[in-house]
Amino acid sequence: MEVTIEQALDFIYKNTIKKATKILPMEQALGFIMAEDISATHNLPPYDNSAMDGYAVKISDASKCVEVTDTIFAGDNSKAVLKNGCGIKIMTGAKIPEGTEAIVPREDTTECGDGVVLPDSLSEGRHIRHCGEDIKKGEILLHKGERLGAHQITLLASQGISHIKVYKQPRVAIFASGSELKMHFESVVDSYQLYNTNAPALKARCEELGCEVDFIGTAKDSLEELQEHLESALNSDLIITSGGVSVGDADYTKEAFGSFGMETYFDKVQIKPGKPTTFGRINKTMVLNLPGNPLAASVNFELFGQSIILAMSGANEKYLNTIDAKMAEEFKLRAGRRTLLPGYFDGSKFTPSKNFAPGMVKPLSEANSYIMISEECSLIKEGDIVKILPIRFAFNSNEQNSLVSP
Ligand SMILES: Nc1nc2c(c(=O)[nH]1)N[C@H]1C(S)=C(S)[C@@H](COP(=O)(O)OP(=O)(O)OC[C@H]3O[C@@H](n4cnc5c(N)ncnc54)[C@H](O)[C@@H]3O)O[C@H]1N2
Ligand code: MOO
């Protein structure tokens, strides 16, 4: 069945099953998706403390020479009480003594005998970090469906949480088909052969997206080899293949997957490149058959493969999204089918890849995003606003630019 991109994505969202859950130690949880809410069990800061190395003082002692009666370090459990006419020396992070109204940084004081002279004006609460001003005990800190990055792990650490419930990573099996293909570790490549680039590319990209990957290798264009590879892949959540989905005499992918009872949701998409992309399932294992042409396989993986993985992952943010950018230059194309165009987004403008075709591998290594051009469009003018879909964004540059906002 031939479908639009929207219909294809609907099939993916409706039919993809979310992964089961497991318990993980916090140190191993980077990149996983939370399968429970986490509430704060402690206030942060846990006690009122000093934001400066200085003196705990009373407001009424402004401009006076106060006697320094004590010194408190971070980690001290001091019982000192601040009296009128006195100051207590205190270090950053130390618990403030009872009776403190403000902290004066040490550089704002001068010595006077056994004490210090305070500034002429003091304001209540200055340089005091209050208990719970960052995190309040009982508030929800992390939500089910949130991805754990370094700063979410910081929150777990702040609460002394050692184990959490997460969704298991999607387990993806990958193989390519094509009798012309050799694996990258094979040294003999004849004049009629080439290296299998799709399977390593898809493996790396699935790993970047947080999947566990079984790399099944390369099947020759024969029904038996495809069936054998497929059998090895059946214990995974998702099988991704490339090649053999067209109408050639050696295109056996459909037949091989059909022989295992694959239920096919779509086997053609109104998209360029990638028309023969196929999605279905064999029992609980989802299947994405991508075309063999490397760039077609890769950009269709970005759209459909990534959407399946996100839908499986348990993430709340499972839909792809775009950001607006200006076209850096004019781009002409043939209208008729929805087109995926790779290119480079530099933070404000999108430059389409030069010299690209569905069978190439180099354009995507130089691109960091792509745009989806409507079927009616035959010209995008310089300066037109386009919607960018990211592939890899790190806002780094080969020039040192100003980082300051006005
Ligand atoms: N008569 C028609 N022919 C083709 C049509 C069509 O509609 N009618 N569609 C074309 C389009 S579009 C595509 S895309 C391809 C899809 O074909 P397959 O999925 O069957 O892919 P293959 O024939 O196996 O390979 C295509 C091409 O890509 C190279 N390739 C394949 N796998 C890999 C790999 N793992 N690593 C590197 N390169 C790979 C392969 O050598 C071929 O050159 O069909 C068109 N034909
Ligand atoms: O649609 Mo094909 O996937 O152009 O290369």
Automatic annotation (TrEMBL):
| InterPro entries according to UniProt | MoaB/Mog-like_dom_sf, MoaB/Mog_dom, MoeA-like, MoeA_C_domain_IV, MoeA_C_domain_IV_sf, MoeA_linker/N, MoeA_linker/N_sf
Q: Name one GO molecular function term.
A: metal ion binding
**Biological role stated in the UniProt entry:** Catalyzes the insertion of molybdate into adenylated molybdopterin with the concomitant release of AMP.
Annotated metabolic or biological route of this protein = Cofactor biosynthesis; molybdopterin biosynthesis
> Does the UniProt entry include the keyword Magnesium?
yes
The top EC class is: transferase
Protein name, as recorded: Molybdopterin molybdenumtransferase
Catalysed reaction(s) here are: adenylyl-molybdopterin + molybdate = Mo-molybdopterin + AMP + H(+)
Which CDD domains does UniProt cross-reference here?
MoeA
Q: Cellular component terms, GO, for this chain's entry? A: cytosol
What PANTHER family would the database entry show? GEPHYRIN, MOLYBDOPTERIN BIOSYNTHESIS PROTEIN
Alphabetically sorted, this entry's keywords are: Magnesium, Metal-binding, Molybdenum, Molybdenum cofactor biosynthesis, Transferase
GO BP term, pick one: Mo-molybdopterin cofactor biosynthetic process
Residues forming the MoaB/Mog domain are: 173-311
Show the Pfam families listed in the entry. MoCF_biosynth, MoeA_C, MoeA_N
> What highest taxon heads this organism's lineage?
Bacteria
Q: Which SMART domains match?
A: MoCF_biosynth (SM00852)
Q: Where are the transmembrane segments?
A: none
Identify which cofactors the protein needs according to its UniProt entry: Mg(2+)
EC numbers for this chain: 2.10.1.1
Assigned protein family: Belongs to the MoeA family.
